User: Which sequence fits this backbone?
């Protein structure tokens, strides 16, 4: 790892590290491509079907791979070179874009909803592969003292993509149609693949003795279950990703049908919370020695739910944009602290698996929430579907706030990099296992 210089624990120190800058650029460009693709394909579904339910299915299929593969991608992040894992995921993105663009160019009338669902499903697989490896690589590059600063910058990169992707996609759709927009998307994927060749990540491949996958995952789950902080964090993660964040998929429909604007302004509206997240992440990136990570996390959740409940009733485009932006500030607290708490509460040789487990909990709720909002919106209205979900989310936050130390106690990193065998021994009372069967 290349040395740092400058003041301890600040954004400027993190940015002086060329290895961090490389992985930051990769995350930024990757998020631009992902957000472009989601808006293009969501708008395509709206044009093909005019169905809120099928619009929700785009988000559902995009997140369906998370609970299916994330435990294994976390294991991969702990066992294999992380730069190669990232490149494998990006190659899959490129191939998917090539196939869908070829179908569009050959005969656009051949495009069916299942093509869209298939493309976003593959995108979900690559996102599940990429997240644990990239975020644990950030920890390996910057270390504990600069982790919050680095993750805040990672949230900034996500939000730059979240802002730029929909805006660029909306303009391209308006100017050059679906084929032109998707051609530019392919160019973004290829550029990011080229950028990944510059990644230099410290070589860490876990303990010398490699455990079988099933046992390794069982140990990670046992460790998480024994940590009240992680239990509270994972519970809130399920609540937020079931009841809150799926609303973002329905912003194009709100813009088109409720505010009655075109695709360019829809793209800007989809990017609105990205502006807020960028501001919030910038503030956190400048913080020093933050102790109450869980408190910031919980307050961020409350802000997302409250502003999400309000924005859908706004009759004016400018007010809707402003409310989404303020909600984005709150979301930056959630996004930054979610990863920071997970990694600070976990020994070094389990961080990849714990990030994979976090991705599972993200993915468990999101497909259900997106499908449910789509069904309710088709029956009643988008406004009532989103508002009722946000209110339910506020109610369900209460047990985690009361029963776990997440919001009340300061958080520090787990002191020792405990070997998985030691963790397995400590959790054996909850998970009895005979020595003869230990390596099944």
Assistant:
């Amino acid at each position: 790892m290349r040395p740092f210089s400058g003041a301890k624990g600040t954004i400027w120190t993190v940015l002086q590290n060329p290895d961090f800058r490389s992985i930051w650029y990769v995350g930024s460009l990757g998020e631009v491509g992902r957000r472009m693709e989601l808006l293009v394909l969501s708008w395509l579904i709206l044009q093909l079907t005019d169905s809120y339910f099928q619009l929700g299915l785009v988000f559902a299929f995009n997140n369906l791979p998370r609970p299916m593969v994330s435990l294994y991608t976390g294991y991969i992040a702990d066992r294999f070179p992380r730069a190669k894992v990232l490149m494998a995921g990006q190659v899959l993105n490129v191939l998917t874009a090539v196939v869908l663009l070829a179908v569009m160019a050959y005969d656009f009338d051949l495009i069916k909803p299942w093509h869209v669902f298939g493309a976003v499903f593959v995108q979900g697989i690559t996102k599940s592969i990429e997240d644990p490896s990239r975020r644990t690589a950030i920890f390996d590059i910057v270390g504990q003292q600069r982790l919050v600063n680095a993750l805040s910058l990672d949230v900034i990169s996500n939000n730059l993509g979240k802002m730029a992707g929909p805006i660029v996609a909306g303009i391209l759709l308006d100017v050059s149609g679906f084929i032109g927009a998707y051609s530019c998307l392919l160019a973004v994927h290829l550029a990011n693949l080229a950028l990944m060749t510059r990644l230099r990540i410290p070589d860490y491949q876990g303990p010398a003795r490699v455990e079988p996958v099933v046992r390794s995952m069982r140990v990670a789950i046992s460790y998480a279950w024994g940590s009240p902080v992680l239990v509270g964090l994972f519970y809130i993660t399920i609540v937020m990703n079931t009841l809150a964040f799926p609303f973002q998929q329905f912003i194009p429909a709100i813009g088109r049908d409720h505010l009655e604007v075109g695709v360019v302004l829809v793209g800007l509206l989809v990017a609105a919370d990205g502006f807020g997240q960028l501001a919030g992440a910038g503030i956190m990136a400048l913080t020093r020695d933050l102790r109450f990570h869980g408190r910031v996390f919980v307050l961020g959740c409350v802000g997302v739910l409250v502003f999400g409940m309000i924005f859908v009733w706004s009759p004016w485009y400018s007010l809707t944009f402003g409310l989404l932006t303020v909600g984005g500030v709150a979301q930056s607290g959630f996004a930054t602290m979610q990863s920071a708490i997970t990694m600070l509460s976990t020994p070094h040789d389990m961080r990849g698996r714990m990030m994979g487990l976090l991705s599972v909990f993200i993915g468990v709720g999101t497909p259900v929430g997106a499908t449910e909002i789509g069904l309710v919106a088709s029956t009643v209205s988008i406004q009532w579907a989103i508002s009722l979900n946000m209110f339910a989310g506020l109610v369900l936050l209460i047990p985690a706030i009361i029963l776990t130390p997440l919001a009340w106690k300061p958080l520090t990193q787990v002191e020792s990099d405990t070997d998985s065998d030691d963790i397995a021994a400590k959790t054996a009372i909850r998970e009895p296992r005979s020595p003869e069967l230990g390596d099944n």
Q: What stands out?
A: The radius of gyration is 21 Å. The chain is about 75% helix and 0% strand. Residues 11-201+210-428 form a domain with the Growth Hormone; Chain: A; fold (CATH 1.20.1250.20).
